[in-house]
Design the sequence.
Protein backbone atom coordinates (compact mmCIF):
# COMPACT_ATOMS: atom_id res chain seq x y z
CA UNK A 1 0.00 0.00 0.00
CA UNK A 2 1.46 3.35 -1.03
CA UNK A 3 1.21 6.61 0.93
CA UNK A 4 0.52 9.53 -1.39
CA UNK A 5 0.08 13.21 -0.56
CA UNK A 6 -1.27 15.85 -2.94
CA UNK A 7 -0.51 19.45 -1.98
CA UNK A 8 -2.21 22.41 -3.66
CA UNK A 9 -1.72 26.01 -2.63
CA UNK A 10 -4.85 28.05 -1.86
CA UNK A 11 -5.75 30.79 -4.36
CA UNK A 12 -2.06 30.76 -5.15
CA UNK A 13 -1.29 33.90 -7.18
CA UNK A 14 -3.90 35.92 -5.26
CA UNK A 15 -2.53 34.78 -1.90
CA UNK A 16 1.01 35.82 -2.86
CA UNK A 17 -0.32 39.28 -3.76
CA UNK A 18 -2.28 39.56 -0.51
CA UNK A 19 0.81 38.52 1.40
CA UNK A 20 3.05 41.09 -0.29
CA UNK A 21 0.55 43.97 -0.42
CA UNK A 22 -1.35 44.35 2.87
CA UNK A 23 -3.87 46.67 1.20
CA UNK A 24 -5.23 43.63 -0.71
CA UNK A 25 -5.82 41.55 2.41
CA UNK A 26 -9.44 40.67 3.08
CA UNK A 27 -10.36 42.19 -0.30
CA UNK A 28 -11.86 40.76 -3.46
CA UNK A 29 -8.94 40.71 -5.88
CA UNK A 30 -8.35 38.98 -9.18
CA UNK A 31 -5.05 38.31 -10.93
CA UNK A 32 -5.66 39.45 -14.46
CA UNK A 33 -5.11 42.10 -17.08
CA UNK A 34 -7.48 45.11 -16.97
CA UNK A 35 -11.21 44.59 -17.62
CA UNK A 36 -11.26 46.87 -20.68
CA UNK A 37 -8.99 44.41 -22.53
CA UNK A 38 -9.58 40.88 -23.71
CA UNK A 39 -7.74 39.55 -20.64
CA UNK A 40 -8.70 36.33 -18.97
CA UNK A 41 -8.51 35.93 -15.20
CA UNK A 42 -5.83 33.70 -13.73
CA UNK A 43 -7.25 33.34 -10.25
CA UNK A 44 -9.33 35.15 -7.67
CA UNK A 45 -8.99 35.61 -3.92
CA UNK A 46 -11.48 33.68 -1.80
CA UNK A 47 -13.22 36.99 -1.04
CA UNK A 48 -13.83 37.42 -4.79
CA UNK A 49 -14.94 33.82 -5.26
CA UNK A 50 -18.03 34.57 -3.13
CA UNK A 51 -19.23 36.66 -6.07
CA UNK A 52 -18.66 33.83 -8.52
CA UNK A 53 -15.34 35.15 -9.82
CA UNK A 54 -12.95 32.32 -10.73
CA UNK A 55 -10.05 31.34 -13.00
CA UNK A 56 -10.21 31.58 -16.77
CA UNK A 57 -13.12 33.99 -17.16
CA UNK A 58 -13.03 37.23 -19.15
CA UNK A 59 -11.79 40.06 -16.92
CA UNK A 60 -14.87 42.03 -17.94
CA UNK A 61 -17.11 39.29 -16.53
CA UNK A 62 -15.24 39.44 -13.20
CA UNK A 63 -16.01 43.15 -12.97
CA UNK A 64 -19.68 42.53 -13.74
CA UNK A 65 -19.93 39.93 -11.00
CA UNK A 66 -18.07 42.01 -8.44
CA UNK A 67 -18.01 45.75 -9.24
CA UNK A 68 -15.59 46.63 -6.41
CA UNK A 69 -13.06 43.92 -7.39
CA UNK A 70 -9.39 44.95 -7.63
CA UNK A 71 -7.47 43.91 -10.74
CA UNK A 72 -3.89 42.91 -9.95
CA UNK A 73 -1.31 42.17 -12.68
CA UNK A 74 0.65 38.92 -12.24
CA UNK A 75 4.20 38.82 -10.87
CA UNK A 76 5.47 35.48 -12.06
CA UNK A 77 8.87 35.78 -10.43
CA UNK A 78 7.20 35.98 -7.01
CA UNK A 79 5.09 32.88 -7.75
CA UNK A 80 8.14 31.00 -8.98
CA UNK A 81 10.00 31.91 -5.82
CA UNK A 82 7.18 30.65 -3.59
CA UNK A 83 6.99 27.53 -5.74
CA UNK A 84 10.70 26.84 -5.30
CA UNK A 85 10.32 27.28 -1.57
CA UNK A 86 7.49 24.76 -1.25
CA UNK A 87 9.45 22.25 -3.37
CA UNK A 88 12.38 22.67 -1.05
CA UNK A 89 10.07 21.88 1.88
CA UNK A 90 8.74 18.75 0.10
CA UNK A 91 12.31 17.54 -0.41
CA UNK A 92 12.86 17.39 3.34
CA UNK A 93 10.48 14.43 3.45
CA UNK A 94 10.86 12.68 0.08
CA UNK A 95 12.56 13.06 -3.30
CA UNK A 96 9.67 11.32 -5.02
CA UNK A 97 7.88 14.52 -5.97
CA UNK A 98 5.83 15.12 -9.10
CA UNK A 99 5.00 18.79 -9.59
CA UNK A 100 1.85 19.37 -11.65
CA UNK A 101 2.25 23.12 -11.71
CA UNK A 102 3.88 25.87 -9.71
CA UNK A 103 1.43 25.39 -6.85
CA UNK A 104 0.64 21.70 -6.90
CA UNK A 105 2.49 18.41 -6.50
CA UNK A 106 2.15 14.74 -5.67
CA UNK A 107 4.49 13.28 -3.08
CA UNK A 108 5.08 9.59 -2.52
CA UNK A 109 5.94 9.20 1.18
CA UNK A 110 5.64 5.42 1.36
CA UNK A 111 9.20 5.67 2.58
CA UNK A 112 9.99 9.12 3.93
CA UNK A 113 13.49 10.44 4.46
CA UNK A 114 13.01 11.15 8.17
CA UNK A 115 11.34 7.83 9.02
CA UNK A 116 8.17 9.53 10.27
CA UNK A 117 5.98 6.78 8.85
CA UNK A 118 2.62 8.56 9.03
CA UNK A 119 1.63 10.31 5.79
CA UNK A 120 -0.98 12.32 7.65
CA UNK A 121 1.66 13.58 10.07
CA UNK A 122 3.98 14.47 7.17
CA UNK A 123 1.18 16.38 5.45
CA UNK A 124 0.59 18.38 8.65
CA UNK A 125 4.29 19.16 8.98
CA UNK A 126 4.45 20.28 5.34
CA UNK A 127 1.41 22.54 5.71
CA UNK A 128 2.88 24.09 8.86
CA UNK A 129 6.29 24.62 7.25
CA UNK A 130 4.70 26.19 4.17
CA UNK A 131 2.73 28.58 6.34
CA UNK A 132 5.68 29.48 8.50
CA UNK A 133 8.23 29.87 5.71
CA UNK A 134 6.17 31.39 2.90
CA UNK A 135 3.27 33.01 4.77
CA UNK A 136 0.86 31.14 2.49
CA UNK A 137 -1.62 28.34 3.10
CA UNK A 138 -1.89 25.03 1.29
CA UNK A 139 -4.46 22.27 1.24
CA UNK A 140 -3.40 18.65 1.30
CA UNK A 141 -4.98 15.30 0.57
CA UNK A 142 -3.60 12.03 1.88
CA UNK A 143 -4.51 8.60 0.59
CA UNK A 144 -3.32 5.41 -1.14
CA UNK A 145 -3.08 6.69 -4.71
CA UNK A 146 -2.77 9.84 -6.79
CA UNK A 147 -6.42 10.09 -7.73
CA UNK A 148 -7.71 9.87 -4.17
CA UNK A 149 -5.03 12.21 -2.81
CA UNK A 150 -5.90 14.85 -5.39
CA UNK A 151 -9.64 14.65 -4.83
CA UNK A 152 -9.00 14.76 -1.08
CA UNK A 153 -6.88 17.92 -1.26
CA UNK A 154 -9.82 19.73 -2.83
CA UNK A 155 -12.45 18.65 -0.31
CA UNK A 156 -11.74 21.13 2.48
CA UNK A 157 -10.13 24.06 0.72
CA UNK A 158 -8.77 26.49 1.83
CA UNK A 159 -6.21 25.40 4.44
CA UNK A 160 -7.66 21.88 4.48
CA UNK A 161 -6.21 18.51 5.32
CA UNK A 162 -8.19 15.45 4.26
CA UNK A 163 -7.24 11.84 4.84
CA UNK A 164 -8.94 8.99 3.01
CA UNK A 165 -7.67 5.86 4.75
CA UNK A 166 -7.60 2.42 3.13
CA UNK A 167 -10.77 1.22 4.89
CA UNK A 168 -12.74 4.22 3.60
CA UNK A 169 -11.60 4.08 -0.02
CA UNK A 170 -14.30 1.81 -1.39
CA UNK A 171 -17.24 3.74 0.11
CA UNK A 172 -15.66 7.02 -0.91
CA UNK A 173 -15.32 5.99 -4.54
CA UNK A 174 -18.87 4.64 -4.67
CA UNK A 175 -20.29 7.94 -3.45
CA UNK A 176 -18.09 10.18 -5.58
CA UNK A 177 -19.99 12.20 -8.23
CA UNK A 178 -18.70 11.49 -11.74
CA UNK A 179 -17.76 15.13 -12.36
CA UNK A 180 -15.05 14.73 -9.73
CA UNK A 181 -13.44 11.96 -11.77
CA UNK A 182 -10.22 12.73 -13.49
CA UNK A 183 -10.71 13.54 -17.14
CA UNK A 184 -14.48 13.97 -16.79
CA UNK A 185 -15.31 17.52 -17.76
CA UNK A 186 -18.71 19.17 -17.85
CA UNK A 187 -19.64 17.73 -21.23
CA UNK A 188 -18.68 14.15 -20.34
CA UNK A 189 -20.48 14.45 -17.01
CA UNK A 190 -23.69 15.47 -18.79
CA UNK A 191 -23.32 12.58 -21.22
CA UNK A 192 -22.86 10.18 -18.30
CA UNK A 193 -25.80 11.61 -16.37
CA UNK A 194 -28.01 11.04 -19.42
CA UNK A 195 -27.26 7.32 -19.23
CA UNK A 196 -27.95 7.37 -15.49
CA UNK A 197 -24.35 7.36 -14.35
CA UNK A 198 -24.11 9.83 -11.48
CA UNK A 199 -21.66 8.35 -9.00
CA UNK A 200 -18.81 5.88 -8.73
CA UNK A 201 -21.19 3.08 -7.82
CA UNK A 202 -23.02 3.48 -11.15
CA UNK A 203 -19.72 2.87 -12.96
CA UNK A 204 -18.90 -0.06 -10.69
CA UNK A 205 -22.12 -1.83 -11.63
CA UNK A 206 -21.24 -1.77 -15.36
CA UNK A 207 -19.57 -4.71 -17.07
CA UNK A 208 -16.23 -4.26 -18.78
CA UNK A 209 -17.82 -4.31 -22.22
CA UNK A 210 -20.34 -1.65 -21.20
CA UNK A 211 -17.46 0.45 -19.90
CA UNK A 212 -15.64 -0.03 -23.20
CA UNK A 213 -18.61 1.42 -25.02
CA UNK A 214 -18.77 4.39 -22.64
CA UNK A 215 -15.11 5.25 -22.02
CA UNK A 216 -13.26 3.71 -24.98
CA UNK A 217 -9.56 3.40 -24.32
CA UNK A 218 -9.97 4.68 -20.76
CA UNK A 219 -12.42 1.93 -19.75
CA UNK A 220 -9.83 0.03 -17.73
CA UNK A 221 -8.77 3.12 -15.91
CA UNK A 222 -12.34 3.77 -14.75
CA UNK A 223 -12.97 0.09 -13.99
CA UNK A 224 -10.02 0.14 -11.62
CA UNK A 225 -10.57 3.63 -10.29
CA UNK A 226 -14.04 2.91 -8.89
CA UNK A 227 -12.48 -0.05 -7.10
CA UNK A 228 -9.95 2.29 -5.49
CA UNK A 229 -7.13 1.24 -7.79
CA UNK A 230 -4.94 3.84 -9.49
CA UNK A 231 -1.47 2.49 -10.02
CA UNK A 232 0.00 5.54 -11.73
CA UNK A 233 3.36 6.10 -10.04
CA UNK A 234 4.54 9.43 -8.70
CA UNK A 235 7.14 10.35 -11.28
CA UNK A 236 9.87 12.64 -10.11
CA UNK A 237 10.78 15.29 -12.65
CA UNK A 238 13.73 16.61 -10.82
CA UNK A 239 16.57 17.81 -13.02
CA UNK A 240 16.37 15.44 -15.94
CA UNK A 241 19.53 15.43 -18.05
CA UNK A 242 17.48 15.28 -21.21
CA UNK A 243 13.90 15.25 -22.42
CA UNK A 244 13.08 13.22 -25.49
CA UNK A 245 10.62 11.23 -27.51
CA UNK A 246 11.11 8.48 -30.05
CA UNK A 247 8.93 6.24 -32.11
CA UNK A 248 9.36 3.12 -34.20
CA UNK A 249 7.62 3.02 -37.59
CA UNK A 250 5.14 0.21 -38.17
CA UNK A 251 7.02 -0.48 -41.39
CA UNK A 252 10.53 0.77 -42.10
CA UNK A 253 10.58 3.69 -44.52
CA UNK A 254 12.82 6.03 -46.50
CA UNK A 255 9.94 8.19 -47.70
CA UNK A 256 10.77 11.83 -46.94
CA UNK A 257 7.20 12.90 -46.23
CA UNK A 258 6.72 10.07 -43.78
CA UNK A 259 9.99 10.88 -42.05
CA UNK A 260 9.11 14.56 -41.79
CA UNK A 261 5.60 13.82 -40.52
CA UNK A 262 7.13 11.72 -37.83
CA UNK A 263 9.50 14.54 -36.87
CA UNK A 264 6.56 16.89 -36.66
CA UNK A 265 4.83 14.52 -34.25
CA UNK A 266 7.98 14.02 -32.19
CA UNK A 267 8.74 17.76 -32.07
CA UNK A 268 5.29 18.39 -30.61
CA UNK A 269 5.69 15.59 -28.10
CA UNK A 270 9.11 16.77 -26.95
CA UNK A 271 7.92 20.36 -26.74
CA UNK A 272 4.93 19.35 -24.59
CA UNK A 273 7.27 17.49 -22.27
CA UNK A 274 9.64 20.46 -22.02
CA UNK A 275 6.71 22.70 -21.19
CA UNK A 276 5.37 20.30 -18.61
CA UNK A 277 8.69 20.25 -16.83
CA UNK A 278 9.43 23.91 -17.46
CA UNK A 279 12.81 22.94 -18.91
CA UNK A 280 14.13 24.21 -22.21
CA UNK A 281 17.54 23.16 -23.43
CA UNK A 282 20.06 24.44 -25.96
CA UNK A 283 21.03 21.13 -27.57
CA UNK A 284 18.86 19.10 -29.90
CA UNK A 285 19.82 15.56 -30.85
CA UNK A 286 18.27 13.60 -33.66
CA UNK A 287 18.50 9.84 -33.48
CA UNK A 288 18.00 7.67 -36.53
CA UNK A 289 17.91 3.91 -36.25
CA UNK A 290 17.98 2.05 -39.57
CA UNK A 291 16.31 -1.22 -40.58
CA UNK A 292 19.61 -3.03 -39.86
CA UNK A 293 19.67 -1.57 -36.32
CA UNK A 294 22.65 0.71 -36.96
CA UNK A 295 22.16 4.13 -35.36
CA UNK A 296 23.18 7.68 -36.31
CA UNK A 297 23.00 10.57 -33.85
CA UNK A 298 23.35 14.21 -34.89
CA UNK A 299 23.32 17.09 -32.45
CA UNK A 300 23.23 20.82 -32.72
CA UNK A 301 23.66 23.39 -29.97
CA UNK A 302 21.87 26.68 -30.42
CA UNK A 303 22.71 30.04 -28.90
CA UNK A 304 19.36 30.22 -27.17
CA UNK A 305 17.03 27.53 -25.90
CA UNK A 306 14.60 25.47 -27.97
CA UNK A 307 11.48 27.13 -26.62
CA UNK A 308 9.31 26.87 -29.70
CA UNK A 309 7.86 23.82 -31.39
CA UNK A 310 8.60 25.05 -34.91
CA UNK A 311 12.22 25.63 -34.08
CA UNK A 312 12.48 22.07 -32.78
CA UNK A 313 10.81 20.71 -35.90
CA UNK A 314 12.87 22.76 -38.36
CA UNK A 315 16.14 21.92 -36.62
CA UNK A 316 15.28 18.23 -36.59
CA UNK A 317 14.41 18.23 -40.32
CA UNK A 318 17.64 20.09 -41.09
CA UNK A 319 19.63 17.48 -39.16
CA UNK A 320 17.79 14.71 -40.95
CA UNK A 321 18.60 16.08 -44.39
CA UNK A 322 22.24 16.54 -43.37
CA UNK A 323 22.37 12.78 -42.79
CA UNK A 324 21.58 12.05 -46.47
CA UNK A 325 19.63 8.93 -45.64
CA UNK A 326 20.16 6.05 -48.04
CA UNK A 327 18.58 3.12 -46.26
CA UNK A 328 15.23 2.44 -44.68
CA UNK A 329 14.61 3.98 -41.27
CA UNK A 330 13.20 1.97 -38.40
CA UNK A 331 13.03 4.63 -35.68
CA UNK A 332 13.35 8.38 -35.19
CA UNK A 333 13.93 10.23 -31.95
CA UNK A 334 14.37 13.84 -30.83
CA UNK A 335 16.05 14.74 -27.56
CA UNK A 336 16.61 18.12 -25.95
CA UNK A 337 19.43 18.54 -23.44
CA UNK A 338 21.82 21.16 -22.07
CA UNK A 339 19.35 22.82 -19.75
CA UNK A 340 19.91 26.04 -17.97
CA UNK A 341 16.96 26.65 -15.73
CA UNK A 342 17.62 30.33 -15.31
CA UNK A 343 16.94 30.82 -19.00
CA UNK A 344 13.63 29.03 -19.05
CA UNK A 345 11.33 31.46 -20.79
CA UNK A 346 8.15 29.93 -19.52
CA UNK A 347 6.58 29.12 -16.22
CA UNK A 348 4.42 26.09 -16.21
CA UNK A 349 1.11 27.15 -14.81
CA UNK A 350 -1.03 24.10 -14.46
CA UNK A 351 -1.40 20.67 -15.88
CA UNK A 352 -2.69 17.18 -15.59
CA UNK A 353 -1.30 13.89 -16.43
CA UNK A 354 -3.87 11.36 -17.45
CA UNK A 355 -5.21 12.16 -20.88
P1 LIG B 1 -5.20 26.42 -9.07
O1 LIG B 1 -4.52 25.57 -8.02
O2 LIG B 1 -6.15 25.76 -10.00
O3 LIG B 1 -6.02 27.58 -8.35
P2 LIG B 1 -5.65 28.44 -7.09
O4 LIG B 1 -4.43 27.97 -6.40
O5 LIG B 1 -5.66 29.88 -7.50
O6 LIG B 1 -6.92 28.22 -6.16
P3 LIG B 1 -7.34 26.93 -5.32
O7 LIG B 1 -7.36 27.38 -3.89
O8 LIG B 1 -8.70 26.57 -5.81
O9 LIG B 1 -6.31 25.89 -5.58
O10 LIG B 1 -4.11 27.16 -9.93
C1 LIG B 1 -2.90 27.64 -9.39
C2 LIG B 1 -2.49 28.94 -10.05
O11 LIG B 1 -2.35 28.74 -11.45
C3 LIG B 1 -3.50 30.04 -9.87
O12 LIG B 1 -3.31 30.77 -8.66
C4 LIG B 1 -3.29 30.87 -11.10
C5 LIG B 1 -2.79 29.91 -12.14
N1 LIG B 1 -3.89 29.59 -13.10
C6 LIG B 1 -3.99 30.33 -14.27
O13 LIG B 1 -3.15 31.19 -14.54
N2 LIG B 1 -5.03 30.07 -15.13
C7 LIG B 1 -5.99 29.12 -14.86
O14 LIG B 1 -6.91 28.92 -15.65
C8 LIG B 1 -5.86 28.36 -13.65
C9 LIG B 1 -6.89 27.30 -13.31
C10 LIG B 1 -4.81 28.62 -12.80
MG1 LIG C 1 -4.11 25.93 -5.99
Sequence:
Amino acid sequence: MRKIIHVDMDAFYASVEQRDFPEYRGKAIVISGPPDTRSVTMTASYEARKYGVKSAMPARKALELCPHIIFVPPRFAAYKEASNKIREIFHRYTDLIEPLSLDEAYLDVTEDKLGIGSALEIAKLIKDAIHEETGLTASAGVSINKFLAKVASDLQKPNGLTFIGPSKVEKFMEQLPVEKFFGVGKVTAERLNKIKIFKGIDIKQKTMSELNAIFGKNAWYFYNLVRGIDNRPVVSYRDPKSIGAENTFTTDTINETKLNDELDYLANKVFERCKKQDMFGKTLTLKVKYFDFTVSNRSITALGVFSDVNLIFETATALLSSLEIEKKVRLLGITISNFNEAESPQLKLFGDDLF
